[in-house]
Specification:
The chain is an alpha+beta fold. The chain has four domains: 47 residues, Helicase, Ruva Protein, domain 3; 88 residues, Elongation factor Ts, dimerisation domain (Tetrahydropterin Synthase, Chain A, 2-Layer Sandwich); 65 residues, Tetrahydropterin Synthase, Chain A (2-Layer Sandwich), CATH 3.30.479; 41 residues, GTP Cyclohydrolase I, Chain A, domain 1 (Orthogonal Bundle). Helices cover 53% and strands 19% of the residues. The protein has a three-stranded antiparallel beta sheet with strand order 1-2-3. It has a three-stranded antiparallel beta sheet with strand order 4-5-6, with helices on one face. A hairpin with a 3-residue loop joins strand 1 and strand 2. The longest helix is centred in the middle third of the chain and has 20 residues.
Length: 261
């Protein structure tokens, strides 16, 4: 029968509940390492039971060196857990680990197992890696930005320009959250639906039939300004579009990534 001191020590090492620790120690005949293994195995079954619960909270962390930037989003169920010190430390640990491993696929294999075996045992929620991305800096200008709430982040890779321009655009993307890079990227069915909505609105307003197409064209241009990064007005200068900012800095967007919890 495990004493209170041993139970408390196991709880400190694993973060598991007192009764879970007691049962694990009893099953392990007070062998601390075996009890930890038992809790980890139980953590896997806990994770499976919790996997159906929606994880809508979480945090994003980044890590970088001279070659790469790593971004990791770790999702959980509650804001309370997202503010937990173990959770905060873990998401940064995973970002650092992705940077170290320099391999997204290998990292996901490691992290998915590590979350189940370690984090779920300690915290007891449906926790999983939501996104894990590596961005290579070689011969490119790469800028990243994480919002103060650590729930929205963006990374931009430019050919030409500068790191500062890439970082400014990453900040813009975090704030404006564009759906597409340019108008040509908007799917035909999405565009057709928008045009049909505008047409019905104009008919209801009794607009002249010969004016409808011209008005719709203006509305579509406005739609592009809302959903296409290149057509959006720059958040730091609302008289300048992103396409103009890029042109002035002899830069082109190679790729960008918006990460959201």
């Amino acid at each position: 029968m495990a004493d209170l001191q041993t139970i408390t020590k196991l709880r400190e090492r694993t973060g598991a509940g007192m009764m879970d620790c007691k049962k694990a120690l009893d099953e392990a005949h007070d062998d601390m390492e075996l009890a930890i293994e038992i809790l980890r195995k139980k953590g896997e079954s806990k994770a499976a039971k919790k996997a159906d619960r929606e994880a809508t909270e979480g945090l994003i962390a980044s890590s970088e060196n001279d070659q790469n930037i790593a971004i990791v989003a770790l999702a959980c169920e509650t804001d309370f857990v997202a503010k937990n010190e173990d959770f905060i430390a873990s998401v940064q640990k995973y970002a650092d680990k992705l940077l170290e491993m320099n391999d997204e696929q290998a990292f996901r294999t490691f992290a998915d197992e590590d979350v189940k075996r370690e984090l779920v045992v300690k915290i007891g929620e449906n926790i999983h890696i939501l996104q894990a991305k590596l961005f290579v800096k070689t011969d490119k200008f790469v800028g990243s930005y994480i919002h103060l709430n650590k729930k929205i982040a963006a990374v931009v890779v430019l050919s030409g320009g500068s790191v500062e321009v890439a970082r400014d655009i990453a900040m813009h993307i975090s704030a404006m959250q564009p759906d597409y890079l340019k108008p040509e990227d908007v799917p035909a069915d999405v565009l057709a639906k928008e045009k049909e909505i505008y047409k019905e609105q104009l008919r209801a307003e009794n607009k002249p039939a010969d004016m409808i197409d011209k008005i719709i064209e203006g509305k579509i241009n406005k739609f592009y300004e809302e959903v296409c990064l290149m057509k959006q007005f720059f958040i730091k200068d609302d008289k300048k579009k992103i396409e103009q900012l890029l042109s002035e800095n002899s830069a082109q967007i190679e790729t960008y990534q918006l990460v959201k919890i």
